[in-house]
Amino acid sequence: MEQQENKKPFNKKLTWVVLILVLLFVVVMSGKGTETPPSSTPSQQAQPKRISYQITDRWTIPNGGEGKVIVISPDYVNDADMVALGDKLKSDTQNDRNANISVFDNASAAALRDKVLGDKATTAEQDLYDAHFVGQYSKNSNTGYHQFVIYFDGVMGANQKTIKY
């Protein structure tokens, strides 16, 4: 009888060990099928909208880089597209020490830039220029100044947004 009494505690211990191992196995195996997939694979991620622009004037900045006047579609003058344009300009000028890019949504207004800056524009020309001057991208690596100011209502409007890089 003594042998049976000694077997009982051993059987109890063995039962607990087996039970724990089975539970551990079940927990591990149940987690295998419930892995959450990544939010999206690189091919599924939304590609940033490609904002195209036309360069109507450009000049070299002596300290390195370029100045430009660009024209975009008026359809792009909204928050999401202008932010995407700022990202594109940042990418396009990443190797430039300096950049000064005036953004217009009308080619005729863009053509008036030198006339307006030279204070030779008529009131009507100034108004056209102001209404369609929709952004100014500026970068100066020497000072760390780097921003894109968006003028949703034209340069004289109150609806503006500044993005600092």
Description:
The protein is of the alpha+beta class and 165 residues long. The chain folds into two domains: 1-29; 54-164, no CATH class. Helix content is 39%, strand content 25%. It contains five helices and six strands; from the N terminus they run αββαβαααβββ. The protein has a six-stranded mixed β-sheet. Helix 2 (79-92) links the parallel strand 2 and strand 3. The longest helix is centred in the first third of the chain and has 31 residues, at 2-32. The radius of gyration is 32 Å and the shape is elongated. The protein starts with a helix and ends with a strand. It holds the Pfam family Phage_holin_T. Keywords: Cytolysis, Host cell lysis by virus, Viral release from host cell.
Summarize the structure in short.
The protein has 165 residues and is an alpha+beta fold. Helices cover 39% and strands 25% of the residues.
Q: What is the fold's blueprint, element by element?
A:
Layout: H1 2-32, E1 54-60, E2 65-71, H2 79-92, E3 98-104, H3 107-111, H4 113-117, H5 123-132, E4 133-140, E5 145-151, E6 160-164
Parallel strand pairs: 2-3
Antiparallel strand pairs: 1-2, 3-4, 4-5, 5-6
